[in-house]
Specification:
alpha+beta
Length: 69
């Protein structure tokens, strides 16, 4: 596993063409190994900009914390 921290918000399209938002949390175990928990949000969005706006409003996301797939 890479020691480079993951961006906490992943934006990607599902098989139906809707944009989905995944919130990722990184924790570290006693050996300082990163453990990542990903939670796919229930909401679907028409655009990536709408998903970013939702993350900023509900999760306090900031610019530079988003990854896309």
């Amino acid at each position: 596993m890479s020691r480079i921290p993951l961006r906490p918000f992943l934006i990607c399209k599902d098989e139906d063409g809707h944009v989905r938002l995944t919130v990722r949390e990184t924790r570290y175990n006693s050996q300082n190994y990163p453990l990542i928990t990903s939670t796919l949000q229930q909401e679907t969005f028409a655009t990536a900009a709408a998903a970013r706006a939702h993350a900023k409003m509900h999760f306090g996301a900031e610019a530079g914390q988003f990854a896309s797939k």
